[in-house]
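DUF4298 domain-containing protein: structure tokens wanted.
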Amino acid sequence: MSTDATNSSASEPLKSGRDQSALDAVEHDTARIARFTSELRTMDARFSEFDAYYRGAWSTDRDDENAPNLAVTGEDYPWDAINDYLDALRELLRVATELQTRERRP
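Answer:
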């Protein structure tokens, strides 16, 4: 990509320092998105592990009178955690779709 001042439009002259800072910020943000995308798979693996537990052994563990009184053995906390995770994914998808499909001029 060229940084030649002749590539900027006449109505928006190159503002060297500010434009370079904006470019640096975009590159930094892009790296953050890439790291988050990678981490999202790890997050989902943890969710899937908990979701499998919740759909399986959780009901037995919850009914065990000798089990410690933890949030995981309650009824509301696990249910809320699962739904909050899925809601967060839906919001992420909504925002990413909105940003990706927004009309942008080259």
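Residues 43 and 80 are 17 Å apart (CA to CA). Residues 16-55 form the longest helix (40 residues).

Cheers.
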